[in-house]
């Protein structure tokens, strides 16, 4: 395959750090390369070198003649005075750009909800980020370099971007360089993974799952002193092999080798023991949201939410940006009061919240990390062992020298980990995490997940990172049309339901009057009752499907007739779910 760009014996040094010693890497036609590594080890610097935005201290960067390279960094480079339309297509007439399938796809996938004539300066940070990404994807580039492109994208946007990048170029053409902490996205897009560490770039075949396997093998063969990190990655590999089947279906993922490596790795969580501990700490009553509705400025955000949260439950919440996920967390913490319905809390409930802003750290900004943890108790029980706050910070990736730094001098990822530690050491029994993956690299995500595996309480996670959701939670819910839906089929079911809802709205005739104008009050109440009944029926079906899966797993597989009978019963239950979901969407349109 033809060479596109590369670096030869590149050395890069900053006043306080040697970033690269003598790195040689190359990108060829058809390469789709994901770049991973700890925060601060040089991932963004490597992108800057290869795209020409940084100059090396020695060595050289090469590009094929006439190569068109486009990149999106984490820095906002948009002109605040320009409109959205001008930023995306310039002064091209509408008939010209609207006739281009790629432009239509990018606009529909990333910015369909943003007004074409809006000034860039009036947009939120997340909207500006999407505009910046869309402008790059509209352009015709041979090589695309993306630095954390999934930031500010919801799950639908991330899924669309993966599909777009996989279909953008013909086979064995074009090149992609990608820095991201989103491990699902890496697995979907990357065919090669580069790990940046200790001044070098180490290549691995395949995406994140294959990289985990090869890294475990490398560490075992080298017998290095990183036993803690090795065991953590073996645990991660165990989840990859035991988790969703699609994760291990890629041909480069050597299943026999993986099975041998994880043969002695116990299950990630002792669910029975954790449930006992959670019940002992919380009792049977935790938090119940009973027919709760919330509006802001007359706009309904959450409608008729019915959710009984039990001790030890580990639930993930998904939904589009602005769907009401943070509002739901606010109801649980008591920061938001419902317009109707009520929130009932158990007497022993203590809620801990890791929010997106890090408000808890603001009063500590001028203090040294060592002073902050010095005020805490000397010993805490974590994972069945006594640990000090400093040991817990070390487990979350803090080096000893960083304890002398002031809180406001820490990187975004370090502040996030300090905030998580303080939240956990406050000893809540209900833990809420709002986008916990922000500013955290893949190694620290794995360390955080390992810590959460042994946390004995009720856990609720709001995130667009589907890998994290599938990894640390046992069930998922979605906010769709202001209502909370249980997702027996996980994130894939949410994407299907969201696509159905979008398709039905798009297909609705423009001249049709709104359903709310066509029905009487009695009809409206009847529709709301039917919605509630469907939700209850779907919850029962989810339990029945889970039980049927367990029955199938324990059944004598040599009894083909019995297996076929159980499989037919399972399909009938899943068919009932599909019918009820269709009816739910039909009624929800009437209630809009």
UniProtKB/TrEMBL annotation:
<protein>
    <submittedName>
        <fullName>ABC transporter ATP-binding protein</fullName>
    </submittedName>
</protein>
<dbReference type="InterPro" id="IPR032524">
    <property type="entry name" value="ABC_tran_C"/>
</dbReference>
<dbReference type="InterPro" id="IPR027417">
    <property type="entry name" value="P-loop_NTPase"/>
</dbReference>
<dbReference type="InterPro" id="IPR017871">
    <property type="entry name" value="ABC_transporter-like_CS"/>
</dbReference>
<feature type="domain" description="ABC transporter">
    <location>
        <begin position="287"/>
        <end position="506"/>
    </location>
</feature>
<keyword id="KW-0067">ATP-binding</keyword>
<dbReference type="InterPro" id="IPR051309">
    <property type="entry name" value="ABCF_ATPase"/>
</dbReference>
<keyword id="KW-0547">Nucleotide-binding</keyword>
<dbReference type="GO" id="GO:0005524">
    <property type="term" value="F:ATP binding"/>
</dbReference>
<dbReference type="Pfam" id="PF00005">
    <property type="entry name" value="ABC_tran"/>
</dbReference>
<dbReference type="InterPro" id="IPR037118">
    <property type="entry name" value="Val-tRNA_synth_C_sf"/>
</dbReference>
<dbReference type="Pfam" id="PF16326">
    <property type="entry name" value="ABC_tran_CTD"/>
</dbReference>
<dbReference type="GO" id="GO:0016887">
    <property type="term" value="F:ATP hydrolysis activity"/>
</dbReference>
<dbReference type="InterPro" id="IPR003439">
    <property type="entry name" value="ABC_transporter-like_ATP-bd"/>
</dbReference>
<feature type="domain" description="ABC transporter">
    <location>
        <begin position="5"/>
        <end position="223"/>
    </location>
</feature>
<keyword id="KW-0175">Coiled coil</keyword>
<feature type="coiled-coil region">
    <location>
        <begin position="524"/>
        <end position="583"/>
    </location>
</feature>
<dbReference type="InterPro" id="IPR003593">
    <property type="entry name" value="AAA+_ATPase"/>
</dbReference>
């Amino acid at each position: 395959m033809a060479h596109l760009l590369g670096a030869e014996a590149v050395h890069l040094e900053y006043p306080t750090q040697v970033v690269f010693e003598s790195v040689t890497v190359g990108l060829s036609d058809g390469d789709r390369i994901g770049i991973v590594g700890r925060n601060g080890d040089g991932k963004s610097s490597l992108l800057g070198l290869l795209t020409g935005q940084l100059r090396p201290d020695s060595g050289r960067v090469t590009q094929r003649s006439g190569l068109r390279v486009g990149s999106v960094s984490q820095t906002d480079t948009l002109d605040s005075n320009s409109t959205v339309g001008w930023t995306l297509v310039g002064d091209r007439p509408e008939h010209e750009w609207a006739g281009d399938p790629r432009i239509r796809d990018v606009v529909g996938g990333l910015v369909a909800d943003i007004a074409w004539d809006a000034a860039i300066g009036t947009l939120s940070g997340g909207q500006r980020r999407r505009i910046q990404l869309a402008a790059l994807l509209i352009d015709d580039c041979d090589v695309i370099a993306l630095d954390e492109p999934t930031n500010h994208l919801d799950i639908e946007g991330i899924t669309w971007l993966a599909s777009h990048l996989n279909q953008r170029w013909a086979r064995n053409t074009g090149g992609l360089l990608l820095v991201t902490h989103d491990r699902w996205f890496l697995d979907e897009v990357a065919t090669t993974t580069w790990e940046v560490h200790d001044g070098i770039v180490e290549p691995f075949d395949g995406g994140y799952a294959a990289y985990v396997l090869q890294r475990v093998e490398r560490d075992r063969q080298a017998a290095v002193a990183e036993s803690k990190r090795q065991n953590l990655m073996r645990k991660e590999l165990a989840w990859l092999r035991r988790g969703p089947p699609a994760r291990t279906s890629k041909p480069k993922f050597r299943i026999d080798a993986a099975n041998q490596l994880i043969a002695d790795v116990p299950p990630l969580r002792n669910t029975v023991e954790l449930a006992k501990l959670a019940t002992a700490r919380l009792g049977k009553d935790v938090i119940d949201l009973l027919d709760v509705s919330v509006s802001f400025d007359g706009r309904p955000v959450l409608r008729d939410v019915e959710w009984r949260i039990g001790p030890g439950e580990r639930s993930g919440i998904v939904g589009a940006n602005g769907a009401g996920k943070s509002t739901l967390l606010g109801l649980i913490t008591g920061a938001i009061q419902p317009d109707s319905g009520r929130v009932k809390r158990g007497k022993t409930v203590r809620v801990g919240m890791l929010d997106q802003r890090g408000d808890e750290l603001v009063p500590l900004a001028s203090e040294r990390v060592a002073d902050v943890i010095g005020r805490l108790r000397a010993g805490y029980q974590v994972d069945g062992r006594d640990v000090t706050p400093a040991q817990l910070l070390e487990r979350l990736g803090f080096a000893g020298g960083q304890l002398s730094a002031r809180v406001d001098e820490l990187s975004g990822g370090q502040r996030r980990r300090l905030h998580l530690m303080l939240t956990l050491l406050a000893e809540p029994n209900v833990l809420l995490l709002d986008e916990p993956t922000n500013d955290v690299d893949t190694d620290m995500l794995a360390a955080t997940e390992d810590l959460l595996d042994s946390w004995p309480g009720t856990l609720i996670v709001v995130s667009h990172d589907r890998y994290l959701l599938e990894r640390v939670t046992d069930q998922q819910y979605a906010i769709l049309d202001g209502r909370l839906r249980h997702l027996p089929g996980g994130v894939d079911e949410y994407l299907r339901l969201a696509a159905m809802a979008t398709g039905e709205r798009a297909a609705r005739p423009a001249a049709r009057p709104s359903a709310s104008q066509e029905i009487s009050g009695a009809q409206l109440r009847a529709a709301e009752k039917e919605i509630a009944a469907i939700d209850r029926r779907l919850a029962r079906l989810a339990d029945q499907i889970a039980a049927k899966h367990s029955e199938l797993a324990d059944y004598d597989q040599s009894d083909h007739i019995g297996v076929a009978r159980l499989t037919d019963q399972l399909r009938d239950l899943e068919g009932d779910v599909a019918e009820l979901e269709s009816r739910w969407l039909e009624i929800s349109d009437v209630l809009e």
